[in-house]
């Protein structure tokens, strides 16, 4: 039994029952693929169910307010995906009459849809013979065929895509694509896969050469930047709070947060108190400042490590545009701020 048939047989016996696999609706498949970028299935599934319940069609998503979309997305990270999702929904609904493009080439023209997502939608919805190549596929192919190409290199995507295209059965493209991705997710896992029970073990070159844990090769390391965020929780006489919308480009664009002082390094309480007084003393009459978390919260993003602390700043009188706790919790926040508000603010 050859590589492709073995994978498909394994998949039919072992696949997870996931809602986007029980449909060829391109809207649902597109939603799931965008959500599962950089996200595990277990984490993404509740979001998929929430989105399809709140926005049953692409028209519902297109007509939604951006803050509603961001609030539902809260905690899933990489928020540019949500903004692109919303913009693409508007384009499909209002420019294409609610009908998604039915081929790989045209799907690539949609904002936020790259080669992998376009291939997934084209094969799963329209059975187009086009291979999907994600991290799981890199891993399965590099191990089985003993490919030492650095998957972070410029030519890797082309090399692996051509190999996958040669393997994909012309009459079963959707099934093959689902199978190889699921195989990488469940069986040919990154660390310590159980090769003894693997249906491909007789032909796997990495297993024969004792190289399973060396493949795939990825040499480029992501450079991580450390940032230090000091959030100021201003509280007025009415116990109302001041928020700001993060309009600048970069992380958390269009999400809400407390007023922020970012510093070059972690500074002590006296220093941050002085900075708060210098920056806000002319705007508010500050009565007291106290830290709300003893140690900084480390929040890891793909290219940044954020060291976050919250300080309660009690001010006299009533702050302009301040809002109540009850109103505040309906706003879309980065998950680290949302968790603080829910667990530690009151």
List keywords for this structure.
about 350 residues; alpha+beta; Endonuclease III, domain 1; Nucleoside Triphosphate Pyrophosphohydrolase; five-stranded mixed beta sheet; 7 strands; about 40% helix; elongated
What does this molecule look like?
The protein has two domains: 3-132 and 165-186, Hypothetical protein, domain 2 (Endonuclease III, domain 1); 225-343, Nucleoside Triphosphate Pyrophosphohydrolase (Alpha-Beta Complex). It is 42% helix and 12% strand. It contains 15 helices and seven strands. The chain has helices at 3-14, 26-35, 41-54, 58-62, 66-73, 80-94, 104-107, 115-126, 135-144, 156-167, 173-186, 205-208, 269-280, 325-328, 335-343; strands at 225-235, 244-245, 256-257, 260-263, 286-291, 297-300, 304-315. Helix 2 runs antiparallel to helix 8 (115-126). The longest helix has 15 residues, at 80-94.
Portion of residues within helices: 40-55%
Mean pLDDT: 95
End-to-end CA span: 62 Å
Shape: elongated
- Return the string of H and E elements: HHHHHHHHHHHHEEEEHEEEHH
**CATH superfamily membership of the largest domain:** Hypothetical protein, domain 2
Share in β-strands: 5-15%
How many structural domains in the coordinates? Answer: 2
Largest sheet: 5 strands, mixed
Rg, nearest Å: 24 Å
Q: Count of DSSP helices?
A: 15
Which CATH architecture of the largest domain?
Orthogonal Bundle
- Structural class comes to alpha+beta
Could you please say which CATH topology of the largest domain applies here? Endonuclease III, domain 1
